[in-house]
Specification:
The protein has one domain: Homocysteine-binding-like domain (TIM Barrel, Alpha-Beta Barrel), CATH 3.20.20. The chain contains 13 helices and twelve strands. Strands 1-10-7-6-5-4-3-2 form an eight-stranded parallel beta sheet. It has a two-stranded antiparallel sheet with strand order 8-9. Strands 11-12 form a two-stranded antiparallel ribbon. The mean pLDDT is 93.
Length: 374
């Protein structure tokens, strides 16, 4: 006999879809504000080695051992008025957990992190009447597949577990963030897509790349290469986070505003870190961050903003106040069809000369190649 559908599961799925649709609507109509730094706030509560299950620094373990600590961070951000918080799952991937010899716990820690954030979001939605959402954080890990540190398929399959866990825990969107290697980014995006197919729930998928002070991603990719490579994967939003403050992000956001077909996001650090006797200090004040984000919204039409390293609830409180009531400024993007290498994008433009497409052509190093050219 065929099994009967579970009414509670059907109801939960319907609620999830309603929330997700509301988030999509909000991103289209107004500026949505996310939270700020997570790791520093967790560490500020001085968790013990026992809390980390003797895996010191593995913040995702706290989702299991100290959910109260993780909850308190989400609460601090919701209390200042942000629309959504990111899950404590930045390191819930194969390479990061593999360094602690617990890669098999990707799903468990991802689900727990999303469930904690979901519970807090629902409590604030009920108490304030303002809908709050959960962004499922998918971090870069510690292995770069382009450099051969880990197999692409291994990373992709683990990202699928990461995403499936967060979807099960109640995430409303997935954010592939702090990406440094375009192949790692693709692994996360395709893992997330596979998770959506497996769960039957389609969430907004945000990709946030990290551009260093050098003006490129860690492996040398320009922002144009990132856009050309990632936009065709069907992502819902692209933006920047981490590595620098807003001042260093402006030109890269300008490029995205001119060329990106999809909406934009920005979550900068509180400036560039300044090393002192007590470690790194982030100098950008809350009013300065709020002013920068308002400027970005008005000039580049950002839909999702927030903060990264060094930003606090006070930073985000002032951001919320500055952008309240603002809608993303209308953009008139002029996408340029093209192809990208790891490093840069090349538009499909042909002037009076022929277009040459090729890789390294060392006739001296290869007899076969020299004969083929001749």
């Amino acid at each position: 006999m065929a099994s009967l559908p579970n009414p509670s599961l059907s109801s939960e799925l319907a609620e999830n879809r309603t929330r997700i649709a509301a988030l999509r609507g909000a991103l289209a109509e107004r500026v949505v504000v996310a939270d700020g730094a997570m790791g520093t706030m967790l560490q500020a509560q001085d968790p013990t080695l026992e809390d980390f299950e003797n895996l010191e620094g593995c913040n995702e373990i706290l989702n299991i051992t100290r959910p109260d600590v993780v909850r308190s961070v989400h609460e601090a951000y919701f209390e200042v008025g942000v629309d959504c918080v990111e899950t404590n799952t930045f390191g819930a991937n194969h390479s990061a957990l593999g360094e602690y010899d617990i890669p098999e716990r990707v799903y468990e820690l991802s689900e727990a992190g999303a469930r904690i954030a979901r519970e807090v979001a629902d409590e604030f939605t009920a108490s304030t009447g303002q809908q709050r959402w959960v962004l499922g954080s998918m971090g870069p890990g510690t292995k770069l597949p382009t450099l051969g540190h880990a197999p692409y398929t291994t990373l992709r399959d683990a990202y699928q577990q990461n995403a499936e866990g967060m979807i099960a825990g109640g995430a409303d969107a997935l954010i592939v963030e702090t990406t440094q290697d375009l192949l790692q980014t693709k692994a996360a995006v395709l893992g997330a897509r596979r998770a959506m197919d497996a769960t039957g729930l389609v969430l907004p998928l945000v990709v946030s790349v990290t551009v260093e002070t050098t003006g490129t991603m860690l492996l040398g990719s320009e922002i144009g290469a990132a856009l050309t490579a990632l936009e065709p994967l069907g992502i819902d939003m692209i933006g920047l986070n981490c590595a620098t403050g807003p001042a260093e992000m402006s030109e890269h956001l300008r490029y995205l505003a001119r060329h990106s077909r999809v909406p934009l996001s920005c979550m900068p650090n509180a400036g560039l870190p300044v090393l002192g006797r007590d470690g790194a200090h982030y100098p950008l004040t809350a009013p300065e961050l709020a002013s920068a984000q308002e400027t970005f919204v008005r000039e580049y039409g950002l839909s999702l903003i927030g903060g990264c390293c060094g930003t606090t609830p006070e930073h985000l409180r002032q951001v919320v106040e500055r952008v309240r009531g603002l809608s993303p400024t209308a953009r008139d993007p002029r996408p340029e069809p093209g192809a990208a290498s790891l490093y840069q994008t090349v538009p499909f433009r042909q002037d009076t000369a022929y277009m040459a497409i090729g890789e390294r052509t060392n006739a001296n190093g290869s007899k076969k190649f020299r004969e083929a050219m001749l």
